Amino acid sequence: MLRRIFGIETEYGLAAMGARGQRVLMPEEAARYLFRPLIAQGGSSNVFLRNGSRLYLDVGSHPEYATAECDNLVQLITHERAGSELFVDMMREAHDLMDAEGVEAGLHMFKNNTDSAGNSYGCHENYLLARNAGFAALASALIPFLVTRQITTGAGKIVSTDDGPRFTFSQRAEHLWDGLSNATTRSRPIINTRDEPHADAEKYRRLHVISGDTSMAEPTTFLKVGSADLLLRLLEANVKLPDYTMTNVPRSIREISLDLSGRHPIPLRSGTTTTALQVQRDYLAACRAYLEANPDQRLSTDAAVLDLWQRALDAVETGDISGICTEIDWAIKLRLIRQYQEKAGLALDDPKILRLDLAYHDIDPQHSVFAALEGRGQIVRLSDPAAVELAKTQAPETTRATLRGRFIAAAQDLGRHITVDWMHLKVNDGLGKTVQLRDPFETVNPRVEVLIEKLATAL
What we know:
42% helix, 14 helices, 459 residues
């Protein structure tokens, strides 16, 4: 599938802290302040927005943003960033409410995957597949890639081990327990197999990857999604790849995360062993060879994906992260921590270092280490700020999200009560009309136009 629908669902950590860093409100109390204006407007903490996205409060009081359907990487990165900026706007409103009620606390939202209590929350990637793609075989073939890609796209984290504190590639690795499963929290797998295509089920299926780290740096998201899309194209074209079926997926993903050399032996069912570096290099070589042999399957972003993929692997193999320390999250964070350690003479598990690790993921520009680095040009930005601002209120125009966005905007402007999900548009107050959007690539639909017209004429 050369033109593919993508989506990213991002859960955020939320905390209300006092001036001395103490917790002032429980997460559910903080969430009530964050979502109060949204509930006042729409009567729910689970809403679809004018930009076609879904914003809601997930289990555990985690705010979550699911991007509208996107069909290219830059568009996806733009709309994913718009979600973070919308949450920053919501925090500003929440602070005003808290000030008015005498609550002396500041809200902080963290775009990461773990909290201080050891809980994990996710970043889920969605890829549209053809129904006849052979989901089970394709998903199984992807597992070795997804287990090992943390060495290129992990968010980085300091963890405690029996041997002392360690900097690891991944925040999510220690919370995964299976390769394929329909569970999401009880026994987190690499790929969730629940069949919810949110589209015509006879034509499409959705690949739901729940194992990846949440990315702060846009180039990391670019590589994370871009490399997965490339490999999907190979699998859909029935390109034969090396058999890297692992004997123990949960154990392998943890051990890979702990080894910054990328060379930890991974036992395979064949009786041999491999390494994360070898797996990723073989997949990279296969993708490059496929594009050279099939230039008609090449996208404009592929060359940049292959280049960053190559540089990330070279950095792991040589230990020299200078070539990726403005683009890949774990390398950016590792450089930052090493600089701070050298300057202040601190151990890796010093509270100041641990706070720095967390502050990297704070999305509020007033507190964010990431925002400060990006503002100084020390982190590469791919999205255009003007396009991000537009994406906060306008849906992608190249997918069905544009139909959903226009319907929502019209209903809100007219004060009409509607119900919306990924596939359905319904007017609740008297008309009783529902339009189903089964084609995620659809951008023109006469039935939607009629529905929008009736919103106004039925007043």
